[in-house]
Request: fold
Amino acid sequence: MTGTGIEVTLKVREISGQNPFLCMQCGLCSAGCTGKGTMDMLPRQVMRLLQFGSGKLLDERSMWICTTCLTCTARCPRGIDVARVMEALRALNQRRGVSVLAPADLGAEILADVPQMALTSAFRKLSA
Reply:
């Protein structure tokens, strides 16, 4: 997969089982997002770019910042599981070999202080 155009939208739809074209851009997902202060693109904007068939999404950080708290999913009046869409975007990047967390980048103090379960979860979510 090249990660351009409508290919990303089709792959996200296949992986997540969600139809981004159902999104009516109401913004409820973004209003309740717990990561909105640090995201480069809000969930509503992610959904809009999917509707446009933009491959640019794979280069954004929002999918990695998403905590999968499911607030967006609970608030969506169209029943779209937005968190599942974000997970699909992460999966596409991981398939391309893109990672945001490498074990070598972590200092010894972090490895000593952070619970092993948290590290395991972070590596599953953030590394290819």
Observations:
- The helical segments are 6-16, 28-31, 43-52, 62-65, 71-75, 82-95, 108-113, 116-126.
